[in-house]
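Course assignment 3, question 2. Fill in each field.
Student: A.L.
Task: Predict the tertiary structure for the chain below.
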Amino acid sequence: MTLGTMSAQIVDFANRADPYPLYAALRTSPVTRQDDGLYLVSTYYEVRSLAADPRLSNDLRNRAPGAAGPAVTEEDTNLPPSFLFQDPPGHDRLRNAAMRPFGPPHSPRFLHDLRGELAKVVADLSDALEGKDEIDVVDDFAYPLPVTAICKVLGVPREDEPRFHGWADTVASGLDPSGGESGVEKAQQARRELGAYLSDLIDTKRRHPGSGILGPLARETGPGGTMSTSELVATSILLLIAGHETTVNLISNATLTLLRHPDILDRFRKEPGLAVPLIEEVLRYEPPVQFIPFTTPLTDIDIAGTTIPKGSQVWLLLASANRDPKRFENPDRFDPDREDNEHLGFFTGIHYCFGAPLARMEAQLALPQLFRRIKNPRLLADPPPYRVNPVLRGPRHLPVAIDGLTAP
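Answer field:
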């Protein structure tokens, strides 16, 4: 193994349970050219600098023909790219339009008013664990909560989850650089099918807005509107998938990390107010998005003694940057008392995670309730089985033995 073949090691499933030694090796050279022409950026200040650099593009159309790196799902002529895969001004127009019904300054109470409903969902999921001596934290808790939450946010019928679950999984798999052309084709087909489902729902929302942000957004489409119908479909696909995939990983990774640190878990159960800094430390220590695999320089960029050529493919390794000892003291130690924890768990810059406030709220509701209710939790598999996707890294299942529940 050499630094020039590290990208292959990162996507190799054999390293999914613990990619951090690979990142540590990469940080000896902040910017590393791979043998196939791909560039990996692994250190905190360089990742942060490039994330804020307008010369680095998220628009896949700026990639040079034949450049190394994965094709991804959004390269699909039937739908425009979502705002995640656009640069200003298109990115700003679409993101600002989507934010209007979701958060400040236009809708400052939207998430606040959702908190009570989500707390009830958390309580119901906890109650459903009654009578079990073994639970799967992913299937029983970490997945149902974010899916229910994003359905409420968008106004997607929760009972449609069996329909969109497979599409969402397949679209998300399109971010996996190791998926190959067949994986991309499957992801693109799933994106088209999910888009058709959401297009029909948006048509319904125009006539009967109901709850959620799709109703207000549907009324903004058309001539003179803030986005076209196809742009709203693309935006809805992004929000539906990103709105639950990353939060599933956040809650699962947090649970796994706490069970690996019983002293901190014991303290957390006594101090539920520790939830806020603890979740921030999870976002640094085990981020739900490991790296951004689709950026491209619009011109040659000189950084850390390396010139990254125009049109090449660049991976920004967020999880590696979060363990950079030049930024974080004792970076491999899980420490919820860590000060100055300006991690990159939700990225940074103009592509900072749209749903970060929602994800934080869900985790802050879920984790104290889960660990207050379950008695004597023990990991049944360590490491647990991981998801295949190296970008959206988290347990596929998290089997835990418990001695029942405490009273609500």
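Instructor remarks: The first strand starts at residue 31 and ends at 33. Residues 36 and 68 are 6 Å apart (CA to CA).
Grade: pending
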